[in-house]
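User: I'm writing a short report section on ligand binding and want a predicted complex to refer to. Could you take this sequence and adenosine monophosphate and write out the structure as C-alpha coordinates? A short remark afterwards would be nice.
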Amino acid sequence: MLRIALPNKGRLSDEVRELFNDAGLEVRARGERALTASLGGEFEAIFVRAQDIPEFVADGAADAGVTGWDLVCESGRDLELLMDLEFGKCRLVVAAREESGIQKLEDIQDGVRVASSFTRLTQEFFTRRGQKVTVVPVSGATEIAPHLGIADIIVDLTSTGSTLKVNGLREVDTIIQSSARLIARKDHLPEASARLEDLRQALGSVLAARDKRYLMANVPRGVLPAVREVLPGLNGPTVVDVQGGDFVAVHSVVSVRNIYRTINTLRALGCVGILVTRIERLMP
Ligand code: AMP
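Assistant: Sure. The C-alpha coordinates for the complex follow:
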Protein backbone atom coordinates (compact mmCIF):
# COMPACT_ATOMS: atom_id res chain seq x y z
CA MET A 1 0.00 0.00 0.00
CA LEU A 2 1.54 3.32 -1.07
CA ARG A 3 0.83 6.41 0.97
CA ILE A 4 0.01 9.65 -0.85
CA ALA A 5 0.01 13.00 0.99
CA LEU A 6 -2.80 15.30 -0.18
CA PRO A 7 -3.73 18.86 0.91
CA ASN A 8 -6.30 18.74 3.72
CA LYS A 9 -7.75 22.18 2.95
CA GLY A 10 -7.04 25.35 1.00
CA ARG A 11 -7.06 26.15 -2.67
CA LEU A 12 -5.73 22.87 -3.99
CA SER A 13 -7.69 20.34 -1.91
CA ASP A 14 -11.00 20.22 -3.82
CA GLU A 15 -9.37 19.94 -7.24
CA VAL A 16 -6.99 17.23 -6.03
CA ARG A 17 -9.89 15.16 -4.67
CA GLU A 18 -11.86 15.62 -7.88
CA LEU A 19 -8.87 14.50 -9.95
CA PHE A 20 -8.33 11.34 -7.88
CA ASN A 21 -12.07 10.56 -7.98
CA ASP A 22 -12.13 10.97 -11.77
CA ALA A 23 -9.14 8.62 -12.03
CA GLY A 24 -11.12 5.94 -10.18
CA LEU A 25 -9.21 6.51 -6.93
CA GLU A 26 -12.16 7.61 -4.88
CA VAL A 27 -11.30 9.22 -1.57
CA ARG A 28 -13.12 7.08 0.99
CA ALA A 29 -12.67 8.79 4.33
CA ARG A 30 -14.21 7.49 7.52
CA GLY A 31 -15.53 10.95 8.34
CA GLU A 32 -15.35 14.59 7.29
CA ARG A 33 -12.36 15.21 9.52
CA ALA A 34 -10.51 11.94 8.93
CA LEU A 35 -6.76 12.38 8.52
CA THR A 36 -6.38 9.27 6.39
CA ALA A 37 -8.54 7.65 3.71
CA SER A 38 -8.48 4.71 1.38
CA LEU A 39 -7.82 5.68 -2.25
CA GLY A 40 -9.56 3.03 -4.33
CA GLY A 41 -7.92 0.27 -2.26
CA GLU A 42 -4.54 0.68 -4.03
CA PHE A 43 -3.27 3.68 -2.11
CA GLU A 44 -3.80 5.30 1.23
CA ALA A 45 -4.22 9.08 1.42
CA ILE A 46 -3.03 11.19 4.33
CA PHE A 47 -4.42 14.71 4.57
CA VAL A 48 -1.95 17.34 5.70
CA ARG A 49 -1.23 21.03 5.10
CA ALA A 50 -0.07 21.78 1.57
CA GLN A 51 3.18 23.33 2.87
CA ASP A 52 4.04 20.23 4.92
CA ILE A 53 3.73 17.84 1.97
CA PRO A 54 7.28 18.27 0.56
CA GLU A 55 8.74 17.47 4.01
CA PHE A 56 6.46 14.47 4.56
CA VAL A 57 7.40 13.00 1.19
CA ALA A 58 11.12 13.78 1.51
CA ASP A 59 11.23 12.23 4.99
CA GLY A 60 9.42 9.07 3.88
CA ALA A 61 6.21 9.62 5.86
CA ALA A 62 4.49 9.41 2.47
CA ASP A 63 5.65 7.80 -0.79
CA ALA A 64 4.26 10.58 -2.96
CA GLY A 65 2.23 13.75 -2.65
CA VAL A 66 0.40 16.50 -4.45
CA THR A 67 1.16 20.12 -3.64
CA GLY A 68 2.10 23.47 -5.19
CA TRP A 69 5.46 23.71 -6.97
CA ASP A 70 6.07 26.95 -5.04
CA LEU A 71 5.96 24.97 -1.80
CA VAL A 72 8.24 22.25 -3.17
CA CYS A 73 10.82 24.89 -4.18
CA GLU A 74 10.50 26.74 -0.87
CA SER A 75 11.10 23.50 1.07
CA GLY A 76 14.50 23.15 -0.61
CA ARG A 77 14.11 19.35 -0.44
CA ASP A 78 15.37 17.17 -3.27
CA LEU A 79 12.20 15.54 -4.62
CA GLU A 80 11.28 13.76 -7.80
CA LEU A 81 8.78 15.62 -9.95
CA LEU A 82 6.40 13.03 -11.45
CA MET A 83 3.95 15.32 -13.21
CA ASP A 84 2.49 18.77 -13.61
CA LEU A 85 -1.24 18.58 -12.83
CA GLU A 86 -1.81 21.97 -14.50
CA PHE A 87 -4.25 23.42 -12.00
CA GLY A 88 -3.54 25.76 -9.07
CA LYS A 89 -1.57 27.93 -11.49
CA CYS A 90 0.01 30.97 -9.89
CA ARG A 91 3.23 33.00 -9.87
CA LEU A 92 5.55 33.98 -7.06
CA VAL A 93 6.18 37.66 -7.73
CA VAL A 94 8.08 40.64 -6.41
CA ALA A 95 5.65 43.53 -5.88
CA ALA A 96 6.09 47.11 -4.71
CA ARG A 97 3.73 49.93 -3.76
CA GLU A 98 2.50 51.86 -6.79
CA GLU A 99 3.96 55.10 -5.45
CA SER A 100 7.32 53.57 -4.47
CA GLY A 101 8.93 54.41 -7.81
CA ILE A 102 10.14 50.78 -8.11
CA GLN A 103 9.38 49.72 -11.68
CA LYS A 104 12.00 47.04 -12.19
CA LEU A 105 14.36 44.89 -10.10
CA GLU A 106 17.28 47.28 -10.71
CA ASP A 107 15.34 49.99 -8.84
CA ILE A 108 15.54 47.94 -5.62
CA GLN A 109 18.27 49.39 -3.43
CA ASP A 110 20.48 47.41 -1.01
CA GLY A 111 18.95 47.29 2.47
CA VAL A 112 15.36 47.14 1.23
CA ARG A 113 13.04 45.08 3.48
CA VAL A 114 11.11 42.32 1.69
CA ALA A 115 8.11 40.73 3.43
CA SER A 116 7.33 37.16 2.41
CA SER A 117 6.24 33.77 3.65
CA PHE A 118 8.62 32.36 1.01
CA THR A 119 11.75 33.38 2.87
CA ARG A 120 14.09 30.84 1.29
CA LEU A 121 13.09 31.59 -2.31
CA THR A 122 13.15 35.32 -1.67
CA GLN A 123 16.62 35.24 -0.12
CA GLU A 124 17.97 32.97 -2.86
CA PHE A 125 16.50 35.16 -5.60
CA PHE A 126 18.06 38.39 -4.38
CA THR A 127 21.36 36.74 -3.39
CA ARG A 128 21.65 35.28 -6.91
CA ARG A 129 21.15 38.79 -8.30
CA GLY A 130 23.73 40.20 -5.92
CA GLN A 131 21.19 42.44 -4.19
CA LYS A 132 21.43 42.72 -0.40
CA VAL A 133 17.90 42.79 0.97
CA THR A 134 16.49 42.03 4.42
CA VAL A 135 13.81 39.36 4.37
CA VAL A 136 10.97 39.96 6.84
CA PRO A 137 9.17 36.65 7.47
CA VAL A 138 5.36 36.82 7.55
CA SER A 139 2.89 33.96 7.50
CA GLY A 140 -0.06 35.54 5.71
CA ALA A 141 -1.64 38.79 4.47
CA THR A 142 1.72 39.74 2.98
CA GLU A 143 0.13 42.48 0.83
CA ILE A 144 -0.48 44.64 3.88
CA ALA A 145 3.18 44.69 5.01
CA PRO A 146 4.31 47.71 2.90
CA HIS A 147 1.31 49.73 4.15
CA LEU A 148 2.15 48.93 7.77
CA GLY A 149 5.71 50.07 7.28
CA ILE A 150 7.21 46.67 8.19
CA ALA A 151 8.58 46.15 4.67
CA ASP A 152 9.23 48.14 1.48
CA ILE A 153 8.35 45.43 -1.02
CA ILE A 154 6.86 41.93 -0.93
CA VAL A 155 7.26 38.53 -2.53
CA ASP A 156 3.92 36.75 -2.76
CA LEU A 157 1.78 34.40 -4.84
CA THR A 158 -0.70 35.76 -7.32
CA SER A 159 -2.76 34.31 -10.13
CA THR A 160 -4.76 37.19 -11.66
CA GLY A 161 -2.86 40.00 -9.95
CA SER A 162 -6.12 41.53 -8.73
CA THR A 163 -5.39 41.19 -4.98
CA LEU A 164 -2.08 42.98 -5.50
CA LYS A 165 -3.80 45.78 -7.44
CA VAL A 166 -6.58 46.17 -4.85
CA ASN A 167 -3.82 46.64 -2.27
CA GLY A 168 -2.07 49.32 -4.31
CA LEU A 169 0.83 47.06 -5.33
CA ARG A 170 2.55 46.72 -8.69
CA GLU A 171 4.18 43.51 -9.97
CA VAL A 172 7.87 44.06 -10.57
CA ASP A 173 9.05 40.58 -11.60
CA THR A 174 8.21 36.87 -11.46
CA ILE A 175 10.41 34.53 -9.40
CA ILE A 176 8.73 31.21 -10.30
CA GLN A 177 5.67 29.91 -12.12
CA SER A 178 3.77 27.37 -10.04
CA SER A 179 1.00 24.78 -10.37
CA ALA A 180 0.00 21.63 -8.51
CA ARG A 181 2.51 18.81 -8.99
CA LEU A 182 2.71 15.11 -8.19
CA ILE A 183 5.97 14.54 -6.36
CA ALA A 184 7.73 11.48 -4.94
CA ARG A 185 10.75 10.64 -2.86
CA LYS A 186 13.93 10.49 -4.94
CA ASP A 187 15.01 7.13 -3.50
CA HIS A 188 11.73 5.24 -3.61
CA LEU A 189 11.88 1.46 -3.94
CA PRO A 190 11.66 -0.22 -7.37
CA GLU A 191 8.29 -1.79 -6.48
CA ALA A 192 6.97 1.68 -5.67
CA SER A 193 8.14 2.95 -9.08
CA ALA A 194 5.73 0.75 -11.01
CA ARG A 195 2.79 1.76 -8.81
CA LEU A 196 3.70 5.44 -9.08
CA GLU A 197 3.91 5.13 -12.86
CA ASP A 198 0.39 3.60 -12.87
CA LEU A 199 -0.78 6.52 -10.75
CA ARG A 200 0.88 9.03 -13.08
CA GLN A 201 -0.77 7.40 -16.11
CA ALA A 202 -4.18 7.37 -14.40
CA LEU A 203 -4.06 11.03 -13.40
CA GLY A 204 -2.59 12.00 -16.78
CA SER A 205 -5.39 10.22 -18.64
CA VAL A 206 -8.01 12.25 -16.75
CA LEU A 207 -6.22 15.53 -17.45
CA ALA A 208 -5.74 14.63 -21.13
CA ALA A 209 -9.47 13.91 -21.52
CA ARG A 210 -10.69 17.17 -19.99
CA ASP A 211 -10.31 19.35 -23.05
CA LYS A 212 -11.36 16.66 -25.53
CA ARG A 213 -14.75 15.36 -26.73
CA TYR A 214 -15.75 12.20 -28.58
CA LEU A 215 -17.64 13.05 -31.74
CA MET A 216 -19.74 10.67 -33.82
CA ALA A 217 -21.51 11.51 -37.07
CA ASN A 218 -23.17 9.78 -39.99
CA VAL A 219 -21.35 10.99 -43.08
CA PRO A 220 -22.45 10.70 -46.73
CA ARG A 221 -19.84 8.42 -48.34
CA GLY A 222 -19.08 11.03 -51.03
CA VAL A 223 -17.92 13.69 -48.55
CA LEU A 224 -15.66 11.39 -46.50
CA PRO A 225 -12.42 12.93 -47.87
CA ALA A 226 -13.63 16.42 -46.83
CA VAL A 227 -14.63 15.11 -43.38
CA ARG A 228 -11.19 13.56 -42.90
CA GLU A 229 -9.76 17.05 -43.33
CA VAL A 230 -11.74 18.45 -40.39
CA LEU A 231 -11.61 15.33 -38.17
CA PRO A 232 -8.00 14.30 -37.81
CA GLY A 233 -8.73 12.39 -34.56
CA LEU A 234 -5.99 10.83 -32.49
CA ASN A 235 -4.87 8.34 -35.15
CA GLY A 236 -7.26 9.47 -37.87
CA PRO A 237 -11.03 9.04 -37.52
CA THR A 238 -12.61 5.59 -37.10
CA VAL A 239 -14.86 4.92 -40.10
CA VAL A 240 -17.56 2.27 -39.77
CA ASP A 241 -19.81 1.07 -42.58
CA VAL A 242 -23.49 1.65 -41.96
CA GLN A 243 -25.21 -1.39 -43.47
CA GLY A 244 -27.15 -0.91 -46.66
CA GLY A 245 -26.82 2.85 -46.87
CA ASP A 246 -24.92 5.67 -48.48
CA PHE A 247 -23.61 6.77 -45.10
CA VAL A 248 -20.63 5.79 -43.02
CA ALA A 249 -20.36 6.40 -39.27
CA VAL A 250 -17.30 8.44 -38.31
CA HIS A 251 -15.94 8.58 -34.73
CA SER A 252 -13.23 10.97 -33.67
CA VAL A 253 -11.61 12.71 -30.69
CA VAL A 254 -11.87 16.48 -31.05
CA SER A 255 -10.47 19.39 -29.02
CA VAL A 256 -13.12 21.35 -27.13
CA ARG A 257 -11.88 24.55 -28.71
CA ASN A 258 -12.56 23.19 -32.21
CA ILE A 259 -15.90 21.52 -31.53
CA TYR A 260 -18.17 24.47 -32.47
CA ARG A 261 -16.48 25.03 -35.80
CA THR A 262 -16.21 21.30 -36.56
CA ILE A 263 -19.94 20.66 -36.03
CA ASN A 264 -20.89 23.55 -38.30
CA THR A 265 -18.56 22.23 -41.02
CA LEU A 266 -19.95 18.69 -40.69
CA ARG A 267 -23.52 19.96 -40.97
CA ALA A 268 -22.64 22.02 -44.02
CA LEU A 269 -21.18 18.86 -45.60
CA GLY A 270 -24.50 17.02 -45.09
CA CYS A 271 -23.55 14.94 -42.04
CA VAL A 272 -26.40 13.87 -39.77
CA GLY A 273 -26.85 12.14 -36.40
CA ILE A 274 -24.02 14.15 -34.86
CA LEU A 275 -23.30 13.14 -31.26
CA VAL A 276 -20.74 14.71 -28.92
CA THR A 277 -19.91 13.12 -25.57
CA ARG A 278 -17.43 13.75 -22.77
CA ILE A 279 -14.45 11.45 -22.40
CA GLU A 280 -13.58 10.31 -18.88
CA ARG A 281 -10.05 9.02 -19.55
CA LEU A 282 -7.77 9.22 -22.54
CA MET A 283 -4.67 7.10 -23.02
CA PRO A 284 -3.42 7.65 -26.56
P1 AMP B 1 -3.45 27.17 0.56
O1 AMP B 1 -2.60 28.23 1.17
O2 AMP B 1 -3.50 25.91 1.34
O3 AMP B 1 -4.78 27.67 0.08
O4 AMP B 1 -2.72 26.67 -0.78
C1 AMP B 1 -1.88 27.51 -1.38
C2 AMP B 1 -1.34 26.90 -2.61
O5 AMP B 1 -2.28 27.05 -3.65
C3 AMP B 1 -0.12 27.68 -3.01
O6 AMP B 1 1.04 27.21 -2.40
C4 AMP B 1 -0.13 27.56 -4.50
O7 AMP B 1 0.54 26.40 -4.89
C5 AMP B 1 -1.63 27.41 -4.85
N1 AMP B 1 -2.23 28.63 -5.42
C6 AMP B 1 -2.87 28.68 -6.61
N2 AMP B 1 -3.28 29.93 -6.89
C7 AMP B 1 -2.91 30.71 -5.86
C8 AMP B 1 -3.07 32.12 -5.56
N3 AMP B 1 -3.66 32.94 -6.39
N4 AMP B 1 -2.60 32.55 -4.39
C9 AMP B 1 -2.03 31.70 -3.54
N5 AMP B 1 -1.85 30.39 -3.77
C10 AMP B 1 -2.28 29.89 -4.91
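A remark for your report: The mean pLDDT is 94. The two ends are 28 Å apart (CA to CA).
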